[in-house]
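Possible regression after last week's pipeline update?

I re-ran a chain I had predicted before the update to compare outputs. Posting the input and the new output here so someone can diff against the archived version. Not blocking, just want to make sure nothing changed silently.
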Amino acid sequence: MLKALLNEARLYLDITTKGPLLIKSGYATVIGADMAPVETYRSGQKEIYLPGSSLKGVFRSHIEKVVNSIKPQVACNPLSRPNDRDTRDDRKLYRPFCGNNFSDKTPPPPHEVYTKSCPTCRLFGSTLFGSRIAVEDAYLPAGSVGKASLIEHRDGIAIDRLTGGTGGGAKFDLEAVTEGTTFTTDIHLRNFEIWQLGMLFVIIQDMEDELIRLGSGRSRGLGKVKASINEQGVTLSAARRGKNEEPDNELWGLGHWLGEEAATYDTRRNDLLKLSPSVPHTKNGVRYTRIFKDKALNSLKIESIEAFVTRMQEWTPQTTTSSSQRS
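New output (post-update):
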């Protein structure tokens, strides 16, 4: 059922550097800085950008910590492996990786994988379940100034661990994106539960509050950014299956759209929000769409984040199939 289009959310996120930022290209340079920002070809010329894979990785890592701060052992550790003997205290906050739940070679049905997945794997995916959130590469606005004015050069030096002084011959150079540079990325969320929309808004809220850093050298003052939802707002849509079923004063999550199948996917039949103010739907091809801005967007963020926190508090650690999670 999750392969069918039920509901979607789409927004553009503006990410502005509040200091130097470096996401390394990973390629050695013969002439120039030892560490340089990643670049791509766009509109016929080289351009610095923020890879969507890097953004998505930071988003997932951050929300895993948030989830396990609300309730330990709810989110899994994607790097853990079967029979992992790592007993460090920080790892005890995490449950084993959801991809290890099925050891046989026969692929389990999707609803079973979803049911046995932790909150982050349900949204970001695992080795057994595809991600339902897409984060595109973040590019500079059209007509931005040239690359040279967006890059600053910095010197670095290694510290001798014995003397505490500079290490001989350990000088290195790096290039970083300058403060005040804005990138824009496109985020698309498909077939979401209300709490999953809230999970996304938690990430965005923490970026608005400058609590998430990107790239290399974060402990050395690099990577500070501030994000905000683009003025286009948040577009939510539902599939057109005859007449519009979703009232203008409600937002339906996956569980409500699934109806009688909700329990099969460990979702809730009452997975919906009452909206104030109401936001009308508009026919748009095969979808009914509506755009949330200003007061409507702020109310949506508050209510969906509350739904996220409540769901995490109620989640049963180490398992997701408890009947107490269903309504």
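Follow-up from reviewer: compared with the archived run. Helices lie at 52-70, 110-115, 119-124, 194-208, 254-258, 294-314. Marking as no regression found.
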